[in-house]
Design brief:
The chain is mostly beta strands. Helices cover 8% and strands 44% of the residues. The protein has 3 helices and 23 strands. The strands form 4 sheets. Strands 6-7-8-9-23-19-18-13-16 form a 9-stranded antiparallel beta sheet, with no helix packed on it. Strands 5, 11, 12, 14, 15, 17, 20 and 21 form an 8-stranded antiparallel beta sheet that branches. A 4-stranded antiparallel beta sheet has the order 1-2-3-4. The protein binds 6-O-phosphono-beta-D-glucopyranose (BG6).
Amino acid sequence: MNLAAIAELDRHFGIPGIARVVVGNGGLAKVAVNTRETAGEMYLHGAHVTSWQPRDAEEVLFVSAKSRWEDGRAIRGGVPICFPWFADNANDPSAPAHGFVRTKAWQLESIVQAGDAVTVSMFTESNDDTKRWWPADFQLVFRTTFGSELNLELVVRNTGATSLRFEEALHTYFRVGQIEKAQLQGLNAVHYVDKTDSNRKKIQQGSIVIVSETDRVYLNTKGAIELEDQALRRRIGVAKENSLTTVVWNPWAEKAKAMSDFGDAEWTQMICIETCNVSDLAVELAPGQQHRMKALVRVVTRD
Ligand code: BG6
């Protein structure tokens, strides 16, 4: 998008002093929000949230210093949206990992202020390009409310004449002070698929501590999860609606080195906690119906 088009979006949607459409990294357009209560950023590229900082707290989301910021590439960090499949496409190895909407140019729909919170909505829909990979007719709306909490909502509408089956994930990268000093609570006794161990089904015992490459799909998860970060002296709560799976991912040292858009030591500073509906718990959607998945993030800082 050129500078004039970005300026035009700002004239149309911007709220002076509160939310502007500006040029972001790599020349990509982003919405930058700044209120008394919160600051945040969301790119039109992928409808990708890259920053959220409630007032008096440190940045909550992790973005790699080596991320690419260009058309056709996914941003490494923040909240990539995975749709309509998660990870590799089992039927087509040449299809992009995590689907095609994280690298798509979304449209800005609205920016709405309510007190000190700001909701940014973006949308996208099927076209000839998406049908190269997936024949379905659909519309997506992604709404992010930047406030004292971060509220992420993905709405999928089936605009076609046949029923749809899709996977979806809000692949959220949380920033942590030091991964060895972090733990995740809320998944005790939950069954999960361990992708680092030939997809074996296992049962979580107690809280999750990251001690090696971790890539797990937790099944039938409805409750909230808490990330305790001793190094940053804070707890991050992730609650959700209409999501039945949670993915927990940290690449650890070796895989980090193999990723060209991720720093060799950055695995110590992040963990992905992904609100999703994947694998056998993919969503079935009848024609004309819509599905709404939500993630709600809050931070409690210790003195
Ligand atoms: C996770 C998957 O959600 O995303 C991992 O479970 C994958 O298997 C990771 O490696 C990162 O994927 P990508 O495509 O962004 O490198």
